[in-house]
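User: I'm putting together a small comparison set for a docking exercise, and I want a reference complex before I start. The sequence is below, and the ligand is pyridoxal-5'-phosphate. Could you produce the 3D structure with the ligand included, as structure tokens?
Assistant: Of course. I'll restate your input first, then give the structure tokens for the complex.
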Amino acid sequence: MNRREELAANLADVRARIGRACAAAGRDPGGVALLAVTKTFPAADVALLADLGLAEFAENRDQEAGPKTVELAGLRPGAAVRWHMVGSLQRNKARSVVGWADQVDSVDSERLADALARAARDRRLDVLLQVSIDGDPDRGGCPLPELPRLADHVARKGELRLRGVMTVAPLGMSPQQAFDALQGAVTRLRNDHPDANVISAGMSGDLEDAIAHGSTCVRVGTALLGSRRLASP
Ligand SMILES: *Cc1c(COP(=O)(O)O)cnc(C)c1O
């Protein structure tokens, strides 16, 4: 199998998993977006996935993503792709990230939101608020009790468009417990900000659980591209 065939087979498997999970949950598969996480993989793979019909790609490190997005633009000029930043982000990288990302999914503080708004200037940058369900400060994310305040802050920024939340499954909690904890916060967020309706949750290992609990976007790396040789920090 060449790389294109391999990626096509992986993509078919992932789509089938999403389809089965939606069927089991009584949900429309059109309501679950597939975000390909391409960190550590080359722009050539992104090009092949774009040829296969994917349009949303994510990276977690600014230094890697910037050159990769430029390379992709060379490989597939005019391809309609959108790039997401899903990794933790220092404020001094805001300007650089805004140079390549269409959406930042890892906004977890007012200060980061301010830096992104300044960097975005007259552009409108889509953002998700990264939520920490267990409040573990090492893994990034806004603790649940602070989410309403952060959401109001972001919504007041003309340069940012609040689209919803992103979460990474906490360690040592069942998916049921984690999503129960998230549910109240998401309901309140949608009540206060009706356009913030994205729930980005679920990765290669747990996308079925996430879809069962209402995820509208799954972020898939290894199941699409294979295992990563480099540990990604
Ligand atoms: C790497 C990464 C993913 C994808 O993880 P896989 O287990 O490879 O599917 C999803 N979300 C974030 C934030 C990541 O950093």
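The longest strand covers residues 125-132. The radius of gyration is 17 Å.
User: Thanks, that's exactly what I needed.
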